[in-house]
Amino acid sequence: MRLALLLSACLLCLNAQAAPVDVASLDRGTWPEKLVSPALFDVASRAEILMFAHGLLASEALDDAALKQRLGLKIINLAAIDDLRRQLWQRLLENYTFAQQSCEEDASFCYLVENMDDLREQAGKFEVSDNSFYIGWAAPSRHFHARYLDELLRKAALFPQISSEVARFGDHERNGDELNDRMFLLTFDGGPATVSGNTDWLTDYLRKQKMNATFFVLGSSLQTRVERSSAADVQALYQGQCVGLQGWQYRSHSHWVDWQSSITRSAGLVQNLMPENYVPLFRPPYGQRRADSQGFFQQQGLQVALWDIDSQDEPGKLKADESAQRVLTLMLLWRKGVIVFHDTQDKARVALPMVLQATAQSGLGWQECREAFR
């Protein structure tokens, strides 16, 4: 039985990889205004919400065959797709409600939206006129949101056989939904990098900015870092930051026989090495974890820490500036959430300062890492 399930999962993985979705990014230079005030952040936010909602509404008109063709899949989980769509609509309504609070200061993209029917109506007829100040943004944004929606729908179509961050298995899993409007949590995956590498630069940069983040570390990389420097050096590396777990190796924890040992071994190492930095959070590599793992995590006193703003800064995906612009666009769309970068990648050293500079006057807040997921 276990072998049959494993083979089934492998086939689904191959199916998922057969027609990968292009990673979405949007050149923020197409938007004609800088985000130099909370009101201008809201204008851009309303625009991105309406554009995404327009694409989401259009996708609901696709029948099963057309949806499979669009996503490049032979088998799809329609129930999971429907669940995701409902969640997306609810989030969009909540976000637009927040974004329209500044309409008296700037009425751009302000429409009467008091309930879900209003939002769906406005999304259906949303368009940017040819003589609009924002016309240069319209087509690139439409393209971005179509590609981004496909990313989300594809993951839902494969859920739960291939788990991901688009859906939760229970209350022990958190994804930033509980954050307040305009609040964001910075997280980094896959570290630590080699001595004097990207992790060193990022933690130093964050301290200079008087900020912190949650670094989800791999046990094997952390142990190697200690061996090649010292325990004191590693403690200094993460001074003022939070350190969570990503397992012993960067591999899927959904079909790995030793997944529990991977987590407990890493937890022991981090707790012993950096008890003041340790936070009881597990970030599943690739977002993949077991559907029946809630009991284990509760027994270990751990929560699964997912995300909703993916920088796509891994090798072979977006360039550093494209990664930053993707993050900025998703911050405008979702208005709060958990941002994930990889501190083993050079791209984060370019992308993160770009994001902070672009939003410095937007009235945003950065969640204290120890207060997140409580």
UniProtKB/TrEMBL annotation:
Signal peptide: 1-18
Top-level EC class: hydrolase
Pfam families reported in the protein's UniProt record: Polysacc_deac_1 (PF01522)
Entries under Gene3D superfamilies matching the protein: Glycoside hydrolase/deacetylase
Location of the NodB homology domain: 182-369
One Gene Ontology MF term: hydrolase activity
Known EC number: 3.-.-.-
Keywords: Hydrolase, Metal-binding, Signal
PANTHER family according to UniProt: CHITIN DEACETYLASE 1-RELATED, GLYCOSYL TRANSFERASE-RELATED
Name of this chain's protein: Polysaccharide deacetylase family protein
Organism of this sequence: Pseudomonas salmasensis
